[in-house]
């Protein structure tokens, strides 16, 4: 096993190719250990050079609604009436602290995601 730090995009691509080749290696084998170490190196490189930003709060709500197979009407009573739900999901109005608390409980979305700033539409 010859592993070195990932410093360039070329190193990154080579590491991805190697990981793909040994991905199904059994744990506690030479290739299994190599896959584990490569995964950590790749993850570190991606966190630095290819970070994935968290979605804005409304997108996070929509993603979770899709995951939970919920419709807009299912949020009525959680964040307000039908028109308030529409205003929130269409970014016409901002989430309130009470809405955030309810959404955190019902949709299991971290309040730290829900309190993030986002632009309203006009």
UniProtKB/TrEMBL annotation:
SMART domains given in the database record: HTH_XRE (SM00530)
Residue stretches making up the HTH cro/C1-type domain: 61-114
Family matches, as Gene3D superfamilies: lambda repressor-like DNA-binding domains
InterPro entries in UniProt: Antitox_HigA, Cro/C1-type_HTH, Lambda_DNA-bd_dom_sf
Record's protein name: Transcriptional regulator
UniProt lineage: Bacteria, Pseudomonadati, Bacteroidota, Flavobacteriia, Flavobacteriales
């Amino acid at each position: 096993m010859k592993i070195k730090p990932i410093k360039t995009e070329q190193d990154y691509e080579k590491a991805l190719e190697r990981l793909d080749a040994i991905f199904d290696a059994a744990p506690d084998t030479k290739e299994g250990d190599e896959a584990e170490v490569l995964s950590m190196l790749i993850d570190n490189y991606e966190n630095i050079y290819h970070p994935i930003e968290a979605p804005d709060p409304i997108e996070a709500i929509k993603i979770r609604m899709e995951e939970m197979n919920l419709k807009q009407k299912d949020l009525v009573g959680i964040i307000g009436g039908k028109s308030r739900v529409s205003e929130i999901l269409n970014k016409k109005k901002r989430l309130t602290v009470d809405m955030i608390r309810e959404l955190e409980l019902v949709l299991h979305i971290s309040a730290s995601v829900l309190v993030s700033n986002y632009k309203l539409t006009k």
